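S.,

Sequence below, as promised.
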Amino acid sequence: MAEKKRLHYIDIAKGVAMLLVLFGHCSYCPTQMKVWLYSFHMPLFFALSGMTFSVGNGGFKEFFVKKSKGFLLPYVLLSVMLWTLIYPSRIILDGFKLKYLKTFVGILIGFRHTEFYFTMWFILALYVAEILLYCIVKMIHNKKLWQKNLILLAAFLLCIAVGYAVILRVDGFVWSLDLAAFALAFLICGYLLKLNHELFSKLSKLYILPLLLICNLGFAYLNYVESGYMVDLYYGKVGNILYYAAGSVFGLWFTVALCYVIKKCRPFEYIGKNSLIFYAFQNSLVIPFCKQLTEYGFRAFQLEFNRPVMFVIIMILSIIVLSVMTEIINRYMPFVLGKAQPIKR
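The prediction came back faster than expected:
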């Protein structure tokens, strides 16, 4: 029963994280909200993967093959599907352009901030980070819990330091390897929560949530004021690294603890279980489409552009469209997700 409860709240947290990503990718999202959610929403995704991480019962070969099928196969197939939905129409309307081909090649290269990049940098960074975490977990396998905690905490701090040193010198890289250290850091953070689940459950009380949120908001605000810009891991913009790390940890802790208190919420669980599909299509296809549709509707009915109202409408439409796409893929194209049989959720 404890395991089932754990999986429920993790799925809810994934759903929350996915919604935060949707909010942040909408141009009508209030700036204050963006500053807050960008302070921790991608670290939250990595941490949630760490909370479900397992080295398995086999050796490295079995782990490597499993992760390659679980990450790379869906990444490639979903990216090709997304490219097919976007670029053929552009080629028909505007004619063939070399940059379209470069974008397609970018599916395999994944070089951010160049023409050889398409989408889903997070999946590539997570894939690399999970392979690295496998090595760490194997090395500490026979250690006592307190020793594991110390080693993992040291590894977390080291990864934060290395990640910061890298982004100061490297602006994007193949397969987002420049962000692998940050990905590993927050993956470790999630794995620490998994190892210390009993302690985490004791600390995940309703009265603690306001304190966690205040700490997250405080560090996010301090970072924004000091750096003068909104942090964004995609661009390697983290501001003050101490504020960023602290704000991220408190933000992801707050979210996971909140979902642990909630325990069950079917809509969020649904989005969480299907977060890969939502993530793949939201930024480059669905949100822009829903934005144009909403703006057209406001113009057609001669309504004043009210940004908060338009933001809510775009998000509702995006969730509906993404849910429909999810059902189609789960039922008729499960192979895209590396599954042989239709997925029923």
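Residues 1-6 have pLDDT under 50 and may be disordered.

Coffee later?
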